[in-house]
Amino acid sequence: MTTVRRLLQPAWEVTPPRDLGAFIRNLPHLLPEGTFLVLEGGSIAEEVQEFLRGHQPPSVPEIALDTIWPKPEVFHLAIGPETMNALSAFAPTLASPEIADHIKAYRDDQEVLAMYDVSCHDPWLAAATVTEERLTEFCRITGCQFRPYQKK
Asked: Is 26 exposed, middle or buried (0-12, 13-18, 19+ CB in 10 A)?
């Protein structure tokens, strides 16, 4: 089984989305085909879990969890316009923890996006493989702002 490597050296720090639905819906503008979204949470709504189970790839790599306890539900989902539109449709009526506590994305065996504690409105991180051009367009659409990541 493949293990996804953590995003240890992010290139970009991005302000949190004002609208989680718009963030999810527009991920195909940011990340190329072949990228997978990971949703991790302890209180994901049953209807969201049903949707995610129906779109889970047949095999998924191991990925480090960000929730220590209790053991979270973890779902992998291919990023594409149809699946992201369908997932984003839950956002207007659910609190963010009912969708995910933590959101990540990976391509091949490398994490390319990490959003910890979705409901806390903290910045999220993106890898250098996310081009400045794609990030600029994504932020224009979603109202986020970005800057080069600086370790604190």
From this structure: buried
DSSP 96: G
User: How far apart (Å, rounded) are the C-alpha atoms in residues 150 and 129?
Assistant: 17
In a domain, 5, yes or no: no
Return the closest-CA partner of residue 112 out of 99, 128, 93: 128
Is there a domain that residue 132 lies in? yes
Q: Which residues span the domain enclosing 109? A: 12-148
Residue 4 lies in a domain: no
Whole-prediction pTM value?
Answer: 0.93
Going by the DSSP 8-state scheme, the letter that residue 82 receives in this structure is: H
Residue-wise pLDDT for 26-57, tens only, equals: 999 999 999 999 999 999 999 999 999 999 99
Q: What distance in Å separates the CA atoms of residue 66 and residue 117, rounded to the nearest whole number?
A: 9
Q: Is residue 126 part of a domain?
A: yes
Q: What is the distance between the alpha carbons of residues 65 and 41, in angstroms, rounded to a whole number?
A: 10
Other CB atoms within 10 A of residue 53 CB:
10
Number of domains in the chain: 1
To the nearest 10 degrees (0 to 180), the angle between helices 46-55 and 81-88 is 170
